[in-house]
Amino acid sequence: MMTTLLAWFLMSYGLMNIMVYGTIFKGLRNGISDIGDAGIPIISGVFHFISGILSCPMCFSAWGGFFLGLFIYSPSYELFHTPTWISWFFDGIMLSGAYRDWETDRKSVV
Known about the structure:
Layout: H1 2-21, H2 26-37, H3 43-54, H4 57-71, H5 75-80, H6 84-109
Helix pairs in contact: 1-4, 2-3, 4-6
């Protein structure tokens, strides 16, 4: 159980780092940002929202937690037996908080 939980946290931390900071996705981030700034009705608003998520590590951690909780593994369901239809929300909260705590600890050591 703990190995699965640790693997889930590491996978999600890696996913967040690659999407928010990785140069491999820089073109995707810039393209989404450009469409968001284009001023096209409805579409620009959605792409502006996605661009904001892709530029914010805590935001992407929360949304990544929602996704991973829905499709990969839900630690809150396993640990706290929350209903499956709400466990994804707690997974996102857990990942966002874990990212913040992880980054705070990392920065205090360096």
